[in-house]
Write a structure and sequence with these properties.
Number of helices: 19
Strand order of the largest sheet: 5-4-3-6-7
Helix content: 40-55%
Structural class: alpha+beta
Oligomer: single chain
Number of strands: 7
Largest sheet: 5 strands, antiparallel
Radius of gyration: 22 Å
Strand content: 5-15%
């Protein structure tokens, strides 16, 4: 068995060499070794290894002496990697308008933030098809910055909120839709709506989005027979579809349940510059049942938890109504199911930069934590203080009591 495994690994290494990939064995080993020779952050180390090992990526390095892991601290390394990939992308025609004071002045910082906290699954995808995915990231950053200038309600948000809750291209471990480009697609549709452009604040904008989103038909096709465009299906509800149908494209094309429709609403919020994240429980009072909704940040009005985060369920055709800043029936099931210091039966929200793992009902194991990491913040204390937890909703657990 050992000999067969050795032969298999050799064949994989030869194939990787033949295709020009250096993720195996030298760089990919940093993902596999525990502990990594790079220390705590093997992700950034593997990325450094990639850009320094591949001839097509090394073209972006101005000073080759920089290809030494121990010369770097994590924040500076993420900036260096962002600069290298920006230089390489310029060779393919991707360039920022990033002179001081220009409209994309913060583009490098945005790309560095995405790289610094990028899950390993996305690092593998990036360095499998770097030039294709760099196009995705360029469009993604460009349209995120464009939203800040287009929608007045998004113009004065802090850079920290923008980086962690507007900029990210993913919410949890959904399919990434690298080819579908959800942010430009949603921006181009939503920026044509006069009522949204005139919304006086974030809450008014989210209310408009909840009415628009179920009717948007973003998966249209051109008919060569009639010479007309055929509209795609509206967003529909599809029970028990998680985790098979979660991404914005899957939800638009096939419909989805609470998690998928929440991700789509979050994507729509982010596309117009509104900070939004997913909240919910990975298991409610009903064993084997989870539920998720969105939190959006309204800087002009405090929310129910003593901060500025507000709640709303995802929406779909025929299900655009629902409570604002109050628990729906399924949300109440999450509250009733809360158990102190339980990883699944608690209330989480997502965070791109968090190093705390958010376990999901379908991916709570060590393998998922390593390869498909989802950053989270425990929100049990906030929700239980405001709305009560436990079967009779009489428990007001503190953050310390909640944290696993």
């Amino acid at each position: 068995d050992f000999a067969a495994m050795a032969v298999l690994l050799l064949l994989i290494a030869l194939c990787a060499s033949a295709t020009g990939s250096s993720m195996f064995p030298s760089c990919f080993a940093e993902f596999l070794l525990e502990p990594s020779s790079c220390g705590a952050n093997s992700n950034l180390c593997a990325m450094l290894c990639e850009v320094c090992s591949r001839p097509d990526l090394r073209l972006g390095i101005i000073d080759n002496s920089l290809c030494v892991w121990h010369n770097w601290t994590d924040p500076k390394l993420a900036t260096f990697l962002s600069n290298v990939l920006t230089n390489v992308s310029a060779l393919q025609g991707y360039r920022w308008m990033d002179d001081p004071g220009d409209v994309e002045e913060d583009a490098g910082e945005c790309l560095a933030h995405l790289l610094r906290y990028m899950p390993r699954r996305d690092i593998l995808a990036l360095f499998s098809e770097p030039h294709r995915l760099l196009g995705f990231f360029f469009d993604h950053v460009r349209y995120a910055l464009l939203a800040r200038r287009t929608f007045p309600f998004a113009s004065n948000l802090s850079i920290d909120l923008f980086l962690d809750h507007v900029l990210p291209y993913a919410v949890i471990n959904e399919k990434r839709d690298f080819w579908w480009h959800w942010r430009p697609r949603l921006f181009e549709v939503l920026s044509q709506d006069a009522s949204l452009l005139a919304a006086p604040n974030v809450t008014a904008a989210v209310r408009i989005l909840t009415q628009l989103l179920p009717t948007l038909q973003m998966q249209g096709m051109y008919s060569f027979t009639t010479g007309t465009t055929v509209a795609g299906p509206p967003v529909s509800w599809r029970s028990e579809s998680s985790p098979a149908l979660l991404s914005p494209h899957e939800t638009v094309r096939f419909g989805s349940s609470c998690t998928g429709t929440a991700i789509l609403l979050i994507a729509a919020c982010r596309a117009v510059g509104i900070p939004a994240r997913m909240a919910g429980c990975s298991e409610s009072i009903v064993a084997g049942d989870d539920h998720h909704w969105i939190e959006f940040f309204e800087p002009l009005a405090p929310g129910p938890f003593g901060d500025f985060w507000h709640t709303r369920e995802g929406v779909s055709r025929g299900a655009s109504d629902g409570p604002w800043d109050a628990p729906s029936g399924p949300m109440a099931g999450c509250l009733q199911g809360v158990l102190p210091q339980n990883r699944l039966r608690t209330i989480w929200s997502t965070s791109w930069r968090s190093n705390v793992y958010l376990p999901l009902l379908w991916s709570a194991d060590d393998y998922s934590q390593k390869w498909a990491f989802v950053g989270g913040e425990n929100r049990c204390g906030a929700y239980c203080t405001a709305w009560g937890c436990g079967q009779d909703r009489s428990k007001h657990y503190s953050p310390a009591q909640c944290t696993p």
